[in-house]
Amino acid sequence: MCPNMALRYDIFSSCPPKSVSTTIFELYLWGSADDADRAWRFDRVGIALASGWFGQTPDYYTDRLEHEIIPELITEAAIAMAHADLKRSRDLLKTAVLR
After folding, report:
1. What mean pLDDT do residues 41-45 have?
2. Residue 11 pLDDT
3. What pLDDT is attached to residue 24?
4. H-helix or E-strand spanning residue 6
5. Rounded distance, CA 5 to CA 31, Å?
6. What is the reported pLDDT for 31?
7. By residue range, what is the domain housing residue 81?
8. Coil, helix or strand for 43?
9. Quick one: which of 23, 31, 49, 71 could link to 75 by a disulfide (CB 3.0–4.6 Å)?
């Protein structure tokens, strides 16, 4: 939970949205700009985009995120969000089927 939920509710009109941009916004407010810059990569759209840049399949790229990018994150909040987003994205993209 965010350290200052009152501020969060004021900003988002008492209904916190569940989008990736909110995750990035929260990291800027309460975390690290470096972590926020990497947060988009764990969403399914970020995985599709970045895996294309690197010429990798989504299943290979999600493994790379887990083993190379998550260990570079700074804050505990970013690490927890990255794990949760990566699990959700793997489920949605069905990366286990691609193997």
Report:
1. 90
2. 41
3. 59
4. helix 5-11
5. 14
6. 59
7. 5-98
8. coil
9. 31
Residue 57: strand, helix, or coil: coil
Q: What is the arithmetic mean of pLDDT over 2-26?
A: 46
Contacts of 78 (CB under 8 A, 6+ apart): 27, 31, 32, 35, 36, 38, 39
CA atoms within 13 A on the CB side of 83: 6
Q: What size, in residues, is the chain? A: 99
Closest CA to 95 of 48, 50, 39: 48
**What is the model's pTM?**
0.66
For 58, other C-beta atoms within 10 Å of its C-beta total: 19
* Number of domains the chain is built from: 1
What average pLDDT score do residues 15-26 get?
A: 51
Residue 25 CB coordination number (10 Å): 17
